[in-house]
Design a protein that fits this description.
4-stranded antiparallel beta sheet, mainly beta
């Protein structure tokens, strides 16, 4: 009985430590990619606007394995506002060093990448209250190929994160 109680206590303390270290996160969600990321597959994230007076940083988070064979990644990211306005960007991220080593954090063959979406050049504010929707789709192409990569290998999870910006 004592062993069960001490195990439960350690689990609760562990959960507390994990969540307390990440107090800036307002929204953080991942969607798994079953096998390969199909070019028509859109990963969606729906969240309620946090405080409209504060500044925020928005990130696209990705987990990838060594099966990812490109040095960069092109994404189409669409931010839909509660009033119906939509802002769509085609973004390029560097995914590997010049020597081919994958960037990101992690000790195993899975690397985690936290990629800036909004808030890095100027503060981002949610100027409308309500539900926001973010759509993320890959836009990869092989050099010289008009058609996109139909099934992108090596991406295991697609995430979106909203953090409260650090106050100066």
């Amino acid at each position: 009985m004592l062993r069960k109680i001490s195990g439960l206590f350690l689990a609760v303390i562990g959960c507390f430590l994990v969540t307390s270290c990440d107090s800036n996160a307002v929204f953080d969600q991942y969607n798994p990619v079953p096998n390969q990321w199909h070019k028509d597959s859109i990963s969606q994230f729906n969240f309620q606007a946090p405080d409209t007076l504060e500044n925020y940083n928005l990130y696209v988070n990705l987990r990838n394995t060594n099966a990812y064979k490109f040095s960069n990644l092109f994404l189409i990211v669409e931010l839909n506002y509660p009033n119906g306005k939509a802002v769509k960007d085609t973004l390029e991220y560097r995914m590997a060093a010049p020597n081919g080593e994958l960037l990101g954090t992690g000790f195993s063959d899975v690397k985690e990448n936290k990629l800036w979406f909004r808030g890095y050049k100027e503060p981002f504010k949610f100027d409308e209250e309500g539900n926001y929707l973010v759509n993320i789709q890959h836009a990869m192409r092989n050099n010289g190929d008009v058609n996109g990569v139909e099934n992108l290998e090596g991406i295991t999870d697609i995430g979106f994160r909203v953090e409260q910006a650090q106050k100066e």
